[in-house]
Amino acid sequence: MSQDSGGGGGDAAIEALSLDLVAHALAGVRDPRDRKSCRLVSRAFARAEAASRRACRPLRREALPRVLRLFPALASLDLSACAGLDDASLAAALSGAAGAGAELGVRRVRLARASGVGWRGLEALVAACPRLEAVDMSHCPAAGDREMAALAAAAGLRELALDKCLAVTDVGLAKVAVGCPGLERLSVRWCREISDIGVELLAKKCRRLRSVDISYLKVTNESLRSLSTLEKLEDLAIVGCLSIDDDGLEMLRASNSLQSIDVSRCDHVTSQGLASLIESQSFLQKINVGHSLHEIDTCFLSKLSTIRESLTVLRLDGLEVFASTLVAIGDSCKNLVEIGLSKCDGITDDGISSLVAHCNYLRTIDLTCCHLITDDALAAIAENCRMVECLRLESCPFVSAKGLEHIGALCSRLKEIDLTDCCINDTALQHLAQCSELVILKLGLCSSISDKGLAYISSNCGKIEELDLYRCSAITDDGLAAVARGCKKIRMLNLRYCTQITDGGLKHVSALEELTNLELRCLARITGIGITYIAVGCTCLVELDLKCCYSVDDAGLWALSRYSQNLRQLTISYCQVTGLGLCHLLSSLRCLQELKMVHVSWVSIEGFEMALRATCGSLKKLKLFSGLRSVISPELIQMLEACGCRVRWVDKPLVYKG
Amino acid sequence: MEACNFENAMEAPRQEQDRAGDSSADPRTILKHLTFLEQKIGHLRGIICTAPRQLVSAELSCIAVQLVSISRSLAAGGGATAPEDAKSPAPAAHAHEGDSDSSDHDHGHRGGDDEERLPPGSYEVIELDREEILAPHVHTCKVCGKGFKRDANLRMHMRGHGDAYKTAAALARPARDDAPPPPPDARTTATTRCFYSCPYVGCKRNREHRSFQPLKTAVCVRNHYRRSHCDKSYTCRRCNVKRFSVLADLRTHEKHCGRDRWVCSCGTSFSRKDKLFGHVAAFDGHAPALPPEEDDAADHRGAANGIGTSSEQQLMGSEAVSSMASMEGISDGMFADFSCSDIKGFPLTDDGRCLEDGRGFFSPMGLDYSCDFDGFDLFGSQVIDF
After folding, report:
1. What is the arithmetic mean of pLDDT over A542-559?
2. A471-486 burial, b if ≥16 CB within 10 A, otherwise e?
3. Is A75 on the interface with B (CB under 8 A)?
């Protein structure tokens, strides 16, 4: 309709421009919402968008054929959120698009969590996209060797992520290694069936590998021996490989191109082994030794000075770190950008002060659970590291408004701060509000925060995207009104256990148009009316948690099923919903992938049966009360499982939190 | 309003159950339902003091509705016999009488060949003759000549030959060499151990041999003699290559014969994975072949079933919904307001954010399965063979 009204002079003027110019102008528009406005204003923009669009993330499988036909320049396709995608629909969409015009130019495909896609779909994908370079199959637990064989047909593949593809064995890895010799980045994290033999063949066949992630595999030092023969290896992650020890790291000395090494949670790696590795590698940029070394040795600290120029990231999570250690690190690593000290014992203000005195370029400082930290440390950080962007201070009980005053005054680039469980008050938020770049703000368990504090934040921090108010029980509807006025870009909002919130507050929240994740657990005062506000206002909603919202009834579900067509995760345990509402919900929401409904006492057995029969086939995870297991007909469960849905039966007692 | 909802919610499934041959009359189903309700009541007991009255009453009414539904389905389908069936306990599973004679495998004695050496003279050496070794039964009755595989069975048999064999001493297990080995320190002090010699002269297990290695038990003697000095009369029926003289060895081989073969794409097969991977590493273009075809076929069948059931489920789902819809007075006109021709109607996103609200485009009731996207029907797509 806007086309008709705007079809006068403006449109004609744009029509006069060439497609390239319009596309160039459009490239400057970043926000997808603004792009949509542009498309609606003029056909020229719509054509330019269609011709120049590179990336797309369809949310429904029905849209896929159209997407592939309309955007011929598409290079990156993200199918991870495509509800109900299966082999047949993927193959049909690809064959339709490839048959219509020339072959598809898609280079990157993301299929993470697309558990409905098997080897047939992958075969069709590889056949239709000859220029395929990167595939992400992570978190498809059913993917196995046959899927790998299908992928191996993509000879030009350079990047492959297979995290948690539990059924992939050495044979599947060998298929990929032989089929895709140009592989540069590979992640087989959590593929527990892969052993030393597979890794050895990989290292022999894919000589161009630059980044390898073999975390949590049952591999030994032999794997490191074979990987050390790779000439271009830069990035190696061996998290949680319990059979790897210092001898393995010793073997890695053979390759000297390493830039990043992650040995966290390797119990048998010690300071000596790491020191000898550092000695041989002169370009190391990132070292992660969290939860692995039993103690930090002086030999390790002295070796750090040999890579003083290159080292930028150092993570020492969960270790015992003394002030002297931090002094040594500060002395030797002046270029540090990120330091991780979460859950380290022995971190004090003096240590932090001496560290930041030398490391002035720090941007990310993780001090989670460093209980002894006080305002002095924050003052030192603010004074020395003006560039700091991310500050994690969860469970630092001595941090107060005074420390945050320094941060607010001096660290204007701060983007993320985690103050969960920090006993801060409204004054602290007043100081923090000076950081206008703030994107992520976590204030969980700060029960003394009130609406006043939120008003300070919303007055100046308009870029906030993630706000966590877990158990901030003093927050009322007025606070939410202020947030909704000031922080329009909020995408994730956690209001769990903010028990004073009522439907009025949700009405304010519904003004947040970009909201995708909303958690409302245990808000006993909200009803279906509040949920209706949310459903109508926040159309992008993807995840909603309504557990223990005792007063939410069918009306809420009706609104969700009518308006929240993009909802993917929903929790409705303890809600006052009936079988009818549930049935309507499940038959309408076509993107719903995860549903948790453990205690929905109002729903009869027949209600469950019917609602589950009405699901649209997109359901991937379902959490039900274990008592129902014997009652619900087995063929219904089989049917759900055949559609790729995993049912978790939980035996939790019915409790009422008043 | 809630009660009315319950009524509505129960109508359709009841019809469904009637169609499906009335499974609810099955006493086991009823028992299951009752157990479920018991559980619910148990939970209710836990919260009855703390929870608001409204919650408790709703819970109770739900239970009541469920009970009524059970009784109705009983009355409708079961007839008079159902309640009695429900009362009768489920037949107890027959306890399987363990047949102690059933197994003739001697796994416990397998390792006896690799015996640690004791100084000669510290033990007694027994040599059985060939016939005795090859006899089908190890234990024979001295009176009637009947053979047994186990000494205990022989002792039981002997009772029939007179009272002399019924004494406790005769029935007791004789103190024997192949009794569980005594603790190491007691070995030297206690009675001398018995070891066995192979009757084949020249064998290392024969006592005449210069570096004689005795056999530990009579079973070891049997297996050794058959393996080393007898014909291999058992042939594997699967591969027709491997031959064995001990039946148990054949059985062990048959378990692995032809399976777990590691095959390369060039057709060469290996018995071990590392050998295959060595081969693949050595030759360009070779890759491990995927395991057997029967898995493939099963996979195919499974997938076909999967698609079939999913569409079936969707059909049933939409059927259920349409029945719901008619109940609630939703007209079909609600679904008429969508079209596929508008480009801009598509819910695409750049980075997870929705561009369109999708409202009115996709029908809220999920009844647009039959609509035709881009010339192919999503339902019809399952017949595409690829």
Report:
1. 94
2. bbbbbbbbbbbbbbeb
3. no
ipTM for this prediction: 0.85
Per the structure block, which two tokens stand in for B358?
């999708």
Amino acid making up residue B358: G
The residues facing A313 across adjacent strands are: A286, A338
Collapsed DSSP state (helix, strand, coil) of residue A458: helix
Which chain A residues are Cβ-neighbours of B347 within 8 angstroms? Answer: 58-60, 63, 565-566
Rg (CA), chain A: 27
SS3 A60: strand
| Mutation site, B361, B377, B381, interface A, largest A CB count within 10 A | B381
User: Which of the four pLDDT bands, split at 50, 70 and 90, describes residue B55?
Assistant: confident
Q: What pTM was estimated for this model as a whole?
A: 0.72
Which of B12, B348, B359 comes nearest A610 by C-beta? B12
Question: 3-class SS at A338?
Answer: strand
Instruction: State the distance between the two ends of chain B, measured CA to CA, in whole angstroms.
Output: 52
Asked whether residue B372 carries a pLDDT value surpassing 70, the answer given is: no
Residues from chain A that touch B18, judged by Cβ atoms under 8 A, are none
For A203-207, A391-395, A410-414, B239-243, which range has the lowest pLDDT when averaged over its residues? B239-243
Q: Which residue has the tokens 């369109």?
A: B356
**pLDDT at site B292:** 62
- Most A CBs within 10 A among B19, B56, B266, B310, hence the mutation to make, goes to B310
* CA A629 – CA A608 distance, rounded (Å): 11
Q: DSSP labels for B31-62? A: HHHHHHHHHHHHHHHHHTTTS-HHHHHHHHHH
What share of chain B has pLDDT > 90, as a percent?
3
Most confident of A100-104, A499-503, B76-80, B158-162: A499-503
Across the interface, do A639 and B344 touch by the CB < 8 Å criterion? no
B357: chain A residues, CB-CB within 8 Å = 539, 563, 565
- Mean pLDDT within B283-297: 73
Structure tokens at A554: 């069918």
A-B C-beta contacts closer than 8 Å: 268
Helix axes B2-19 and A605-613, enclosed angle (nearest 10): 70
Which band of pLDDT confidence, cut at 50, 70 and 90, is reported for residue A497?
very high
Contact, A123 vs A151, CB < 8 A? no
Residues of chain B with Cβ-Cβ distance to A578 below 8 Å are 2, 5-6, 9
Residue B86 scores a pLDDT above 80: no
